[in-house]
Each structure stands twice: as structure tokens, then as C-alpha cells.
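Section 5: illustrative case.
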């Protein structure tokens, strides 16, 4: 142990960060054949049932800044995953929705992600997975409270 007692590689944050990066990397590889990426998941989720939302609503939902969402939506539009239509209530704004092609691939994408979660928790009992979820939800609540 270092003299000052600081062991950053033995903290929850270290493991949470490594797990998040690993799941994103693996998820991207598994989703690539469908034309999806893990960064798109908040948008795909928010629009999955035929919903139409503004860029502002999507940025708020995904907890990202407007420029980040604008770039993401531009790439998704280029790749044929979303379309924009004028907002009848606000001519300066547009509403974003999924294309039929994206909608048709959502179930397969969901299955890929569910399998990834099963793979990540292999060897854990159902009770352990429930405990892990409960603990992670509490940590997330703490982190979100720090961000206010």
C-alpha cells in the first residue's frame, strides 16, 4: 500500500468507470451490424414507441448538452435512423422520430443488450444481481445529488 494510503485502483469509481467503458465498447461491437451504437441508446429508448420529441427534450432525457445531442442526431439522421419534421407548435423547432428502419431493428438491439447484461453478470445469482442493482441505484442517486 502506498505511504499516503491512496489506492485509486481499489475504489468503486475505478471499477464503475472500467465496467462502463467495457460495456460501451462491447455493446458498440455487438450493435454495429444493426447500425446502432451505445451512445444512441437514450434517443432510441425515448423514441421507441413512435414518440416524437424535440432536440431539447432528448438532450434533457439523455442528460447531455444541446451541442452533444445535435451532433448525435445529425449522425443518426445521416445513417437513416431518425428523421426531423417541423414542429407544428413551434416553427423554429423540429420533432425527431425514428425511421421505420430503426424501429424494425429495435427488438434485435434490445436482445443484444439483454444478452450483454447476462454475460456481464454471469456467475451471479438472481439475488446477487438484485443486490448489485440496488447498490448501483443508490450510488447513482448520490452522484446525481452531487451534480446539483
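Designed sequence:
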Amino acid at each position: 500500500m502506498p505511504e499516503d494510503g491512496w489506492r485509486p485502483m481499489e475504489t468503486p469509481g475505478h471499477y464503475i468507470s472500467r465496467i462502463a467503458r467495457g460495456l460501451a465498447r462491447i455493446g458498440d461491437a455487438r450493435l454495429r451490424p444493426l447500425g446502432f451504437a451505445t451512445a444512441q441508446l437514450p434517443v432510441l429508448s425515448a423514441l421507441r414507441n413512435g414518440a416524437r420529441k424535440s432536440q431539447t427534450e432528448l438532450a434533457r432525457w439523455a442528460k447531455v448538452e444541446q451541442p452533444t445531442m445535435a451532433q448525435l442526431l445529425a449522425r443518426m439522421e445521416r445513417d437513416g435512423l431518425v428523421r426531423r419534421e417541423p414542429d407544428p407548435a413551434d416553427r423554429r423547432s423540429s420533432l425527431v422520430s425514428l425511421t421505420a428502419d430503426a424501429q424494425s431493428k429495435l427488438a434485435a438491439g434490445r436482445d443484444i443488450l439483454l444478452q450483454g447484461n447476462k454475460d456481464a453478470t454471469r456467475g451471479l445469482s438472481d439475488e446477487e444481481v438484485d443486490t448489485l442493482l440496488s447498490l448501483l441505484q443508490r450510488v447513482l442517486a448520490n452522484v446525481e445529488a452531487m451534480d446539483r
